């Protein structure tokens, strides 16, 4: 028999909107756009053939039908969530961990060290998936994530790992013949990483370098492209030092001068409370904290 049920997405959008009395705030809670929330609520109203919300002096309010419907679905949603948590908790001894991770951190820091984890925990498999922005763990199969930003991920624990030390880098030829002092940056092309739009401004402020046109120069979507552009002599970049250790060791990139700028953001291991007892996560977390090192784990 076919059940006459709305989608979970519709019900979540309605519940969040009813709880917050705002499509915008509901969108923030669910990591969706305001338009997506409005569309889901509209689809639910069309399915039910009744209005659930009304506008009163630009404020969102529940209709009588909306209040009645909310009272009926909240216990049902809570029951579904409890069943999911109970089942997932029963799988706490599974031997794999599904981890979302920023690609540059994965390729330059995490993956080169995963061999050590495999040696000490041969029964645990780490599966990696690219994630660039926060997401709703309730709508994902991922167990945890390594996130770059600030520790404000709703509904999740954020364990601090490390900050970024941003340094000016270029190839040896530029450093030897063109880039002798910070003032020389005024006449060189600045390379930009799209995910760090304030990197040059932050470095210039740390260096007390006034008047630098930080909008000048090409932008790149990925860390690897910016690093390669600097190696090729296309300009000067500001990059996290720990992500370019290989390039610095080989001489493909050099740090022509200081200072080092510290970002106000950091890397965090993020996971929902219901996954905290997952044995594979506990083992990975302990290893990760040890690998990062006590000195580097102190927030700046």
Question: Poorly predicted ranges (pLDDT <50, ≥5 residues)?
Answer: none
What structural category arises from helix and sheet content?
Answer: alpha/beta
CATH topology (fold) name of the largest domain: D-Maltodextrin-Binding Protein, domain 2
Q: What count of domains describes the coordinates?
A: 3
Give the strand line-up of the largest sheet: 4-3-5-10-6-9-7-8
CATH superfamily of the largest domain: Periplasmic binding protein-like II
Q: Tally of extended strands?
A: 10
Please explain how this structure is put together:
By secondary structure, this protein is of the alpha/beta class. It folds into three domains: 8-90, Arc Repressor Mutant, subunit A (Orthogonal Bundle), CATH 1.10.10.10; 96-163 and 265-297, Periplasmic binding protein-like II (D-Maltodextrin-Binding Protein, domain 2, 3-Layer(aba) Sandwich); 164-263, D-Maltodextrin-Binding Protein, domain 2 (3-Layer(aba) Sandwich), CATH 3.40.190.10. The protein contains ten helices and ten strands. The protein has helices at residues 8-20, 23-30, 34-48, 64-90, 103-120, 172-177, 199-207, 223-231, 245-250, 279-292, and strands spanning 53-56, 59-62, 96-101, 125-130, 144-149, 156-169, 190-193, 219-220, 236-240, 261-272. The strands form two sheets. It has an eight-stranded mixed sheet with strand order 4-3-5-10-6-9-7-8.
């Amino acid at each position: 028999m076919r059940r006459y049920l709305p989608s979970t997405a519709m019900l979540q959008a309605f519940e969040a909107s009813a709880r917050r009395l705002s499509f915008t705030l509901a969108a923030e809670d669910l990591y969706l756009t305001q338009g997506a929330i409005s569309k889901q609520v509209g689809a639910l109203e069309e399915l039910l053939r009744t209005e659930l919300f009304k506008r009163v002096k630009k404020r969102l309010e529940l209709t009588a039908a909306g209040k009645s419907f909310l009272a009926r679905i909240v216990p049902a949603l809570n029951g579904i969530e409890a069943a999911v948590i109970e089942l997932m908790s029963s799988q706490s001894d599974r031997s794999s961990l599904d981890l979302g991770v920023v690609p540059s951190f994965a390729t330059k820091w995490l993956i080169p060290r995963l061999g050590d984890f495999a040696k000490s925990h041969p029964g645990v498999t780490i599966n990696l998936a690219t994630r660039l922005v926060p997401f709703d763990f309730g709508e994902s199969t991922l167990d945890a994530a390594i996130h770059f930003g600030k520790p404000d991920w709703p509904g999740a624990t954020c364990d601090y790992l490390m900050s970024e030390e941003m340094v000016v880098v270029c190839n040896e030829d530029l450093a030897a013949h063109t880039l002798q002092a910070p003032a020389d940056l005024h006449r060189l092309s600045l390379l930009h990483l799209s995910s760090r739009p304030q990197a040059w401004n932050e470095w210039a402020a740390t260096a007390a370098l006034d008047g630098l046109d930080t909008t000048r120069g090409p932008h790149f979507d990925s860390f690897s492209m910016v690093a390669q552009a600097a190696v090729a002599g296309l300009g000067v970049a500001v990059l996290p030092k720990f992500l370019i250790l290989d390039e610095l060791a080989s001489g493909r990139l050099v740090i022509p001068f200081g200072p080092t700028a510290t970002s106000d953001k950091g890397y965090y291991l993020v996971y929902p409370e219901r996954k905290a007892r997952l044995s594979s996560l506990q083992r990975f977390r302990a290893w990760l904290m040890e690998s990062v090192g006590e000195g580097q784990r102190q927030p700046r």
